[in-house]
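Pilot study result, target chain (462 residues):
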Amino acid sequence: MKIIKGLQLQIPEYVPVRRFTPSEMAAMDMPGMGSGTKFDDNPGMPAVLVKDGRLTVNDGVCIHGGTMDSKRSENIKFVTYNGELGGIMVEGNSKYIIDRATMSLSGSCLGLGLERSGIFAYDGADVTVYDSNIYATGQRRSCFTVMKNSIFRAYDSTFICMGAPFGADAPVAEEKNHMRGLFGCTWDTARTSDMQDNSQEFFYNCTIIGDGCCCLSVDGSEGFNRVEANDCRMVTTKSGYGVYSDTFCHIVLNRCDMDIASTAGVMAGECDLTFNDCRIRSNKWIAVTHCIVSLPGQRSNLEMRNCECDSELDALSARSCNLHAVLDGCTLRPKTGVLLRSEINTGKGPHVARPAPGEEMYGIRLFLKNSVYDGDIIHEDPERDMGIYLENCRYNGAVQGVSIHFGKGSRWFATGDSEVIIDGDVDLSAIYAGEGVTVHAKAFADGGEYQLVGGGRIIVTN
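Predicted structure:
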């Protein structure tokens, strides 16, 4: 068939998110990227403190059974109904092993989880957990918190955090409707985990369940945070997101099964989120990226390989933020019939920041590879352009306001009237449209009207 000579658009240079040093972070005007301190206005108290290789058990705390020393604990059982009392805190140059622990913590906290968490790794601590069960319930109560250059590893363990309810029973006002609407949470609810300040977490064959906020929260990076979860089960029950990758954070999920009440993966600004061989069910979106620190030029990076995903809303959402997304060998089934939608954030706060006049934007780039992808692509963010890039795949959907590039072995089945820019040359046999469907395309040359396979038509303008 006819070959249309398209525009030769340039893909903006892709630069992976790197690790930033403390001095670089200090030079940036980026509020909320990490406090660098563990205490708030209402510091709690851990039942057990391991600091710089020394063990201290606080007076009046009852640890049931098991053994404990300055290097490890085995078979301990701990129960508290005091919201200001946590479990084990490891601080400083200490390596500590927690083996077959059972903890139950209930009661709401006055401040953040921190010392009130089941496990708190802080200031260079290195904590490894085996075959343990931690249950936490109450406002702001977390199963574990990892901060300030610390490392946390968990094997074959279960973490359950029930947080606090929303609606009429909520103990605090839901003042952050942006967070509630997108992710099913406010910061006043409990996170199953919270990690900040140049720290790392690794999970192997764990079950992580949350309600009211999330499974894994990774934020306040101070330049770098990393999470890796392997063969894990993640669930949020009535409300809450799965994982949150904040600015300069990196999350990799391998072979995980996720059943999420709100959004499976959230990205904020310059960050990475990777799903490999995951099964995801979400009552809202599969992944959302949004501007959160008043820097609309930042770019989120999403990679999904060999994943199977179902969502009640659009599969992917880009809100006032640049996005580099690669879907390779994936199946996504959004009930709205929309694969990707871009839009402008509304409301008040740093998430509604607008680009300065003339500021260069990376834009939104969606790479579809090695599978069949279904769903419309809708571009409603006039402050960024959007491009889709097909490689060895079939894409079925209507497209509005984007450029489209056809790589080797790719076809587009236009399921509804569409408006596109042709990026690069394309043989019209690669475009299918049923009777009554019209594709309006801007190209470099070969203007005119052409019949497409399936009975539809394409109108090319230059």
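One observation from the pilot: The chain is about 5% helix and 50% strand. A full batch analysis is planned for the follow-on phase.
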